[in-house]
Amino acid sequence: MKNIISIFGLSLLILTSCGGETVTTRSIQNNTANDMKLVFYIDGRARDTLFFAPSEIKQISISTSNKGIDEDPDCVFDIDSAWAGIEGKGVFTKKIQDQNNWISDSDHTKRIPPTYENTCTFQINLNDFE
């Protein structure tokens, strides 16, 4: 009986001492019926250019942290700004660097060790152009 209690105690100690993990996935969604071009600026320079078909969603990054913490995800990351273009539309006005412009969701997927999966989506709509 002592062995069973010792094994159970040791197992519990090992499981609770394991670190958790948080995975954050970031995506851009072309929420229009038009083809779209999107340019990301990092450190003031154009870095990446993506082309989107109508209604297409593309994953732009995944980051992991070895802390399983239940907090709002950081959707904004190294991008300073973005330019989007749709033929025949005006200037893109939505700020990608504003956390409030991202739709986010966090799921607690595992209790021991604590694991969270965050998703962040930046939607681009026709009314984001003036």
Secondary-structure map:
Elements: H1 2-17, E1 21-30, E2 36-42, E3 45-52, E4 57-65, E5 81-85, E6 103-110, E7 115-124
Parallel strand pairs: 1-7
Antiparallel strand pairs: 1-4, 2-3, 2-5, 6-7
Keywords:
single chain; 130 residues; mainly beta; 4-stranded mixed β-sheet; 3-stranded antiparallel β-sheet; 1 helix; 7 strands; 12% helix
Give the CA-based shape: elongated
Whole-number total of structural domains: 1
**What is the tally of helical segments?**
1
In whole angstroms, the N-to-C terminal distance is 74 Å
The neighbouring-strand order within the major sheet is 4-1-7-6
Largest sheet: 4 strands, mixed
Q: How many DSSP-defined strands?
A: 7
Radius of gyration: 21 Å
Percent range for helical residues? Answer: 10-25%
Helix/strand-derived category reads: mainly beta
**Strand and helix order:** HEEEEEEE
What does this structure look like?
The structure is a single chain. The N and C termini lie far apart (74 Å). The protein is elongated, with a radius of gyration of 21 Å. 12% of the residues lie in helices and 44% in strands. It has one domain (19-128). Mean pLDDT is 83; it is low at 8-17. The chain has one helix spanning 2-17, and strands spanning 21-30, 36-42, 45-52, 57-65, 81-85, 103-110, 115-124. 16% of the residues are buried. It has 130 residues and is mainly β.
